[in-house]
TrEMBL record:
Membrane spanning stretches: none
UniProt-recorded name of the protein: FMN dependent NADH:quinone oxidoreductase
Keywords: Flavoprotein, FMN, NAD, Oxidoreductase
Domain Flavodoxin-like fold span(s) in chain numbering: 3-197
Keyword NAD appears in the UniProt entry: yes
Cofactor remark from the record: Binds 1 FMN per subunit.
Molecular function GO terms recorded: electron transfer activity; FMN binding; oxidoreductase activity, acting on NAD(P)H as acceptor; oxidoreductase activity, acting on NAD(P)H, quinone or similar compound as acceptor
PANTHER family to which the protein is assigned, alphabetical: FMN-DEPENDENT NADH-AZOREDUCTASE 1 (PTHR43741), FMN-DEPENDENT NADH:QUINONE OXIDOREDUCTASE (PTHR43741:SF2)
Biological role stated in the UniProt entry: Also exhibits azoreductase activity. Catalyzes the reductive cleavage of the azo bond in aromatic azo compounds to the corresponding amines. Quinone reductase that provides resistance to thiol-specific stress caused by electrophilic quinones.
Organism: Ectopseudomonas toyotomiensis
Length: 199
């Protein structure tokens, strides 16, 4: 039995293509692996705070010296990190906002990319600690950006995931969604076809 952690980041609950892709992924995965556990964390419904002095204090201040806010920030970060540590498969649903990922997803990453927990510093440089995990990134894009200099999603997420040891990463892009019906239908169909091959 595997554990699947799904991170939703679209600001929209209705009409969201990334959420549509997520639902298909979950349905396909559960059909192929009915015993697996799927956990969904929705960053639009329960956004996590952005990195600030309080969270840094929770990480760096000895427990006996932490104030209540720092303790709460550390507990939240620990919960998010524990969910990731427990997962065998990570699914990130990431619509493209202004050429990059939603700020809510960046905030989540800031909580879980933690020295000594998901990576460590060594004499030869940083080393990821989350080896053996798989990741899928489902994107929704108004234009067509894959492979271009304007795609700041895939390179960043590949680097961030590799930094913590996740190298088995598959991107599934739904592109051209705002370029008219023909492009939108084609882009969504291509993404769903790739989803059908997952699992």
């Amino acid at each position: 039995m595997s554990r699947i952690l799904v991170i939703e980041s679209s600001a929209r609950q209705q009409g969201s293509v990334s959420r549509e892709l997520t639902q298909q992924f979950i349905a396909n995965w559960q059909a192929a692996h009915p015993a697996d556990q799927v956990q969904v964390r929705d960053l639009a419904v329960e956004p996590v705070p952005h990195l600030d002095a309080t969270l840094l204090g929770g990480w760096m201040t000895p427990s006996e010296q932490q104030n209540d806010a720092e303790k709460a920030a550390l507990a939240r970060s620990n919960q998010l990190t524990d969910e990731l540590l427990a997962a065998d498969v990570l699914v990130l649903a990431a619509p493209m906002y202004n050429f990059a990922i939603p700020s809510t997803l960046k905030a989540w990453l800031d909580h879980v990319l933690r020295a000594g927990v998901t990576f460590k510093y060594t004499e030869t440089g940083p080393q990821g600690l989350l080896t053996g995990k798989r990741a899928f990134v489902l994107t929704a894009r108004g234009g067509i950006y894959a492979g271009s200099a304007l795609d700041h999603q895939e390179p960043y997420l590949r680097q961030a995931l590799a930094f913590i040891g996740i190298h088995d990463v598959q991107f599934i892009h739904a592109e051209g969604l705002n370029l008219g019906a023909e492009f939108s239908e084609k882009g969504l169909a291509q993404a769903k076809a790739k989803l059908a091959e997952v699992a």
